[in-house]
């Protein structure tokens, strides 16, 4: 009986990815009895050398293919199945086999073609991955969004983009069953520059232009967000090769992990922590934060850089992402996928037991994430319910991360950044784009852990560049204006709370107000009103501090895949440390102010498009519930009616003035109230309402309602049949009188202040 060599074991494991237990390996090589002890020792040596990772009772090659990668198509097999080989493989064994799953709309692929594919890891007898085509390398067909019109020659597409008046011709065989009047997505067919109308083929039918699946696409075009990359940009991305180790620090043996939402496709930050072994920092921690080195691939004065600056940031919608960088970078080379070597800029920071930063340093490095984890499973592991892969990482990775986080929480509590409690909505869609549900996202300590690490990393980046006297873009958040603070103070007073006056405003003063309202019916109102009093954060080369985070200097460093500001900071660090020629150029420094203004504008553009999209999806979801009654809270008062935030979905609905009751309502701008001329009912911010849904328009995102009850008391309807209590001296009248006295008190205070 001969013991196999290490090379033979690795080759066998690579060729048999589904048979990786010690028993399988022993059976394959005929190893029995006491020889199993020698096999066990050999496997341990391979594990120690980094060739294998032991997971539960199986051994496997630690290197993986990234979820997005470049593949070369091979000849079809005798069954007609299409396979491909990866062009990037770092494993010791043979490269894994990939089956390409084609769709009817995909172009024909032949042996030798190179494609960018999205991979799914599977366990099959003859292949380890399945791939879906993103696009063929070297091709970048133009995409068109428009309304399809049937013609005798086939059809035409009328683009919905206001800046594109050109129609597209569609041949009969390229209609893809599109119906007249449908919104379709098409791509250019045939060579460019032909005489007459350009040709296109329909690749996706989106149905009614007002249907949910069309919502985000319409918002993208209406707000002018670029959603297709120029040919030159795609060509540069496709030509990019993985960064070599070179002079980088080799951190591939450190157990970095990424922690993201479960549906995340790109991973631009990884972290690891351990107890500090420095005797001067007893009970302290060392935290590592590694950020994808986008500057390695997006070089100054290239088409890639110009397009990234133009976009400014990625835009996120419930059903799609419009990325700042092409898939080859955002989903592949710049994404810190599990088991794949990736170039990073890494930060090592020492903190003491109270979360105070003792020291830090940056380096250009190479890491290999040991796991791509999601927030939910990490939190469950910390709470004592670890799944298999988290259980293996508890002692060495997850527990030390939480220990470092708990120290940072102490420093955060002392610093007192603004502590708003505003739940984030999550819209869940079907494959057809229909809204299945509207919920509020779970928020775990795992989320806060990553946020706290990223804030610390951003502070370190700003401090380092200030110390090195390097130009950079700060993330600035100025304190609220006196006018907005007065409005917040009046809202707080109307709800029975106090916001300190006559002193320099600090976030701790606002937190005291938020804490006072926490757990009460007024909590949401106070949180929203506080948020509305804040100024908009922006990017600038001047350091005005970050009021909301209670920080003297702050710069975005941690998301260069999706924010151009972070790429600027990465380049500043490269120049400041002398790491290479891909840092800041004199031209970039000269136009830093303009860049800050531009990307602040693109950020606002994306926020508006994302908000419009959310409003339209919510309206589409509500449109099937016309006539239903909903509870909510008044969060806005205007001359034409009141705005209500609904409890169930967080949607904002308008109750027009005519739907408030049977009387005339007087609008008082100073107290921000509406007062009924007959009943004396005062309608103000924060009051509880029940309202009936009367209209929901998916095209505009508008939701209209009629008032049923106010603070539990039924109100009369216009032309109604006595559902309200009218002008009697019942509870509604008494409550209205009390509310009016409160409003009058506010008006007197406002009047005295103005004098």
UniProtKB/TrEMBL annotation:
It comes from Shimia isoporae. Gene3D superfamilies: Nucleic acid-binding proteins. Signal peptide: none annotated. It catalyses: Exonucleolytic cleavage in the 3'- to 5'-direction to yield nucleoside 5'-phosphates. This is Ribonuclease R. One of its GO terms (biological process) is mRNA catabolic process. Residues 718-729 have a biased composition (Gly residues). It comes from the Bacteria.
């Amino acid at each position: 009986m001969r013991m196999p060599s290490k090379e033979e074991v690795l080759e066998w494991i690579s060729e048999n990815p589904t048979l990786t237990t010690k028993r399988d390996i022993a059976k394959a090589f005929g190893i029995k009895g006491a020889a199993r002890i020698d096999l066990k020792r050999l496997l341990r040596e391979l594990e120690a050398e980094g060739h294998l990772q032991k997971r539960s009772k199986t051994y496997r090659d630690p290197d993986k293919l990234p979820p997005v990668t470049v593949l070369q198509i091979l000849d079809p097999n005798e069954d007609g199945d299409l396979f491909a080989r990866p062009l990037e493989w770092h494993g010791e064994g043979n490269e894994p086999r990939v089956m390409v799953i084609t769709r009817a709309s995909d172009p024909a692929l032949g042996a030798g073609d190179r494609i960018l594919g999205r991979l799914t890891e599977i366990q099959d007898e003859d292949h380890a991955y399945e791939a879906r085509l993103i696009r063929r390398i070297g091709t970048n067909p133009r995409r068109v969004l428009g309304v399809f019109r049937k013609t005798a020659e086939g059809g035409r597409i009328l683009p919905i983009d206001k800046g594109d008046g050109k129609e597209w011709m569609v041949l009969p065989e390229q209609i893809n069953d599109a119906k007249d009047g449908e919104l379709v997505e098409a791509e250019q067919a045939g060579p460019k520059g032909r005489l007459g109308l350009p040709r296109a083929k329909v690749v996706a039918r989106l149905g009614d232009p007002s249907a949910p699946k069309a919502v985000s696409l319409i918002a993208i075009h209406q707000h002018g967000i670029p959603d297709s990359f120029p040919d030159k940009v795609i060509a540069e991305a496709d030509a990019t090769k993985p960064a070599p180790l070179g002079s980088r620090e080799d951190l591939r043996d450190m157990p970095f992990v990424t922690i993201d939402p479960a549906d995340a496709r790109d991973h631009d930050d990884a972290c690891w922590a351990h107890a500090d072994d420095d005797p001067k920092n007893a009970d302290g921690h060392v935290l590592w934060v590694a950020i994808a080195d986008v500057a390695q691939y997006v070089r100054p004065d290239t088409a890639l850089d110009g397009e990234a600056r133009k976009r400014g940031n990625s835009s996120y919608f419930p059903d799609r992402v419009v990325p700042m960088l092409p898939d080859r970078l955002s989903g592949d080379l710049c994404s810190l996928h599990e088991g794949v070597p990736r170039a990073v800029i890494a930060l090592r920071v020492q903190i003491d037991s109270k979360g105070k930063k003792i020291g830090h340093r940056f380096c250009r490095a190479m890491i290999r994430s040991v796991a791509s984890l999601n927030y939910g499973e990490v939190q469950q592991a910390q709470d004592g319910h670890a799944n298999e892969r988290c259980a293996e990482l508890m002692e060495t990775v997850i527990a030390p991360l939480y220990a470092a986080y708990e120290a940072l929480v102490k420093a955060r509590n002392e610093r007192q950044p603004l502590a708003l409690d505003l739940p984030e909505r999550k819209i869940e869609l079907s494959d057809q784009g229909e809204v299945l549900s509207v919920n509020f996202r779970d928020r775990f300590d795992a989320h806060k852990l990553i946020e706290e690490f990223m804030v610390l990393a951003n502070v370190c980046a700003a401090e380092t560049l200030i110390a090195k006297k390097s130009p950079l873009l700060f993330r600035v958040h100025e304190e609220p204006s006196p006018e907005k603070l007065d409005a917040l103070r009046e809202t707080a007073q109307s709800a029975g709370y106090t916001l300190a006056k006559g002193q320099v405003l600090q976030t701790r003063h606002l937190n005291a107000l938020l804490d006072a309202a926490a757990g009460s019916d007024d909590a949401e109102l106070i949180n929203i009103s506080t948020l509305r009093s804040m100024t908009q954060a922006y990017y600038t080369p001047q350091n005005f501090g970050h009021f909301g985070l209670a920080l003297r200097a702050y710069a975005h460093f941690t998301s260069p895949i999706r924010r151009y500001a972070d790429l600027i900071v990465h380049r500043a660090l490269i120049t400041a440390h002398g790491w290479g020629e891909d840092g800041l150029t004199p031209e970039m420094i000269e136009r830093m102010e303009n860049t800050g203004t531009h990307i602040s504008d693109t950020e606002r553009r994306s926020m508006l498009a994302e908000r419009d999209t959310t409003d339209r999806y919510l309206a589409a979801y509500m449109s099937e519930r016309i006539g239903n009654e909903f509870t909510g809270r008044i969060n806005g008062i205007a001359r034409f009616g009141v705005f209500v935030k609904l409890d169930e979905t967080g949607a904002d609905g308008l109750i027009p003035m005519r739907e408030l009751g049977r009387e005339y309502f007087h609008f008082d701008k100073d107290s921000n109230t509406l007062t009924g001329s007959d009943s004396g009912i005062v309608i103000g911010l924060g009051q509880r309402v029940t309202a009936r849904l009367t209209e929901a328009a998916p095209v505009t995102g508008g939701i209209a309602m009629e008032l049923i009850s106010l603070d539990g008391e039924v109100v009369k309807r216009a032309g109604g049949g006595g559902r309200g209590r009218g002008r009697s001296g019942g509870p509604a009248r008494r409550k209205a009188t009390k509310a009016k006295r409160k409003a009058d008190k506010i008006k007197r205070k406002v009047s005295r202040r103005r004098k």
